[in-house]
Amino acid sequence: MGAVLCRRQAGAAEAILEDVEMARPAATAPRDLLVRIEAASLNPIDRKRRAARPLLDPTGAVLGWSAVGVVEETGTGVRRFVPGQRIWYAGASERPGSFAEFQLVDERIAGRAPTGLAAEQAAAMPLAGLTAAEALYDHLSIDRAGPGHVILINGGGGAVASLAVQLARRNPAVEIIATAGSPQSREWLLHVGADHVVGHRICLWQQVRQLGCPAPRSIISMYTNKRSWESYIAMLQPFGHICLADHPGTLDIGAARAKSLTLHWQAMFTRPAHLGEASCRQGELLAELARLCDERAITPFPVRPAAPLSAASVAAAMDQQQNGGPRPVFVPQSRMN
Prior knowledge:
This protein has two domains: about 1-125 and about 275-335, Medium-chain alcohol dehydrogenases, catalytic domain (Quinone Oxidoreductase, Chain A, domain 1), CATH 3.90.180.10; about 130-265, NAD(P)-binding Rossmann-like Domain (Rossmann fold), CATH 3.40.50. It is α/β, with parallel strands linked by helices. Helices cover about 30% and strands about 25% of the residues.
């Protein structure tokens, strides 16, 4: 099968992407699904994983952690899916990713794909949707929040923030403040359900205070640095919650003590890596996201026109992704022929 491999040769300044032919995998593990990939999207984690390849990396890795496809084969212990079903998933960080024609994924972390979305739109949602849903429901219990609960979602107009706003909007008691870095992002976030939008490049707590709403009880952060962290501490109510969905540098955690604030880390690959049978929660969340998409209760994040999967197209998209905008999506060339 065709795939895009990321590896770093000895002495190379950075990892490169290569078009390679690999053996088609087989669903030999009991809970595995062999998936024929219809489309896969590029996410910030792919660029980070490329930059983090070890100095000596002859084997390399297949990147890509957000995809939609059709089940081709099932392991002997699979209970939830049969060949021919269309599924979507983010996958597991320790296994080969979705920048290939076929991929193995554990059935517990896959969900039924929505019927109303094209493959290109569907491929852009699993990783971002799971990150938003786990942060909101599993960390912050936003679905059980009562009147007067204000949440700040500091993620600009990105895919995670876009979906987090829409999922939080499912609870009408919650007041949502989002952040944006451009007029286009501000317009988009208001369109998908934010009550207020402030700029993420200037002092957050001063902007939030000027809104006249209650102080936030919860924060989801995709842009955490010293300045935003200090704003979080200043604006949160006592016993509030901060959920970090990024990889910040050194933070003064002790500053949260005076208000008895709770810090949560959101890592989307925690369940596949550590929770075994309990990782089925991701499959449940993906099924719920599919239902909301089919009911048109969620507006998909914009995607770029699908490009044929190749090392050149992935590398070019990684360079362009640093400027934000619609999510890049790739389709295996065998599907485009």
